[in-house]
Amino acid sequence: VNAFLSLFHQAQISNYAGVRHSSMRYYTSDKNVTCRNCHRPGHLSKNCPTPKKAPPCCLCAGRDHLQHSCPARFCLNCCLPGHYFRECLERAYWNKHCNRCDMKGHYAD
């Protein structure tokens, strides 16, 4: 617990080290700031002693992976799961012919 409090105190001290040298446009030493990582007041997220939170996957909202390694990924060409467009064995959708109207770009399903 003491080690965490020490890190927390160091984070508070280092918040304002660069502010004195730059303009006082955004933060001054008397303003309270809130961390966007742990939501505790007194330090910024770049100085947060707690580990950074992983961003969620944009496909399934899981926090253990990102979009490129998502198990729920799907192909934009054939709409089947498990692979991407560049790995698809189907012909590209813009080269497909419709059986009804004989135009390119879609199927008559």
TrEMBL record:
Record bears the keyword Translocase: no
Gene3D superfamilies, per the entry: Zinc finger, CCHC-type (4.10.60.10)
Domain of life: Eukaryota
One Gene Ontology MF term: RNA binding
Record keywords: Metal-binding, Nucleus, Repeat, Zinc, Zinc-finger
Cellular compartments per GO CC: TRAMP complex
Pfam family, one: zf-CCHC
Cellular localization per UniProt: Nucleus
Domain CCHC-type: 35-49
Chief site of localization: nucleus
Positions in coiled-coil regions: none
Protein's GO biological process: nuclear mRNA surveillance of mRNA 3'-end processing; nuclear polyadenylation-dependent CUT catabolic process; nuclear polyadenylation-dependent rRNA catabolic process; nuclear polyadenylation-dependent snoRNA catabolic process; nuclear polyadenylation-dependent snRNA catabolic process; TRAMP-dependent tRNA surveillance pathway
Name this protein carries in UniProt: Zinc finger CCHC domain-containing protein 7
Source species of the chain: Horornis vulcanius
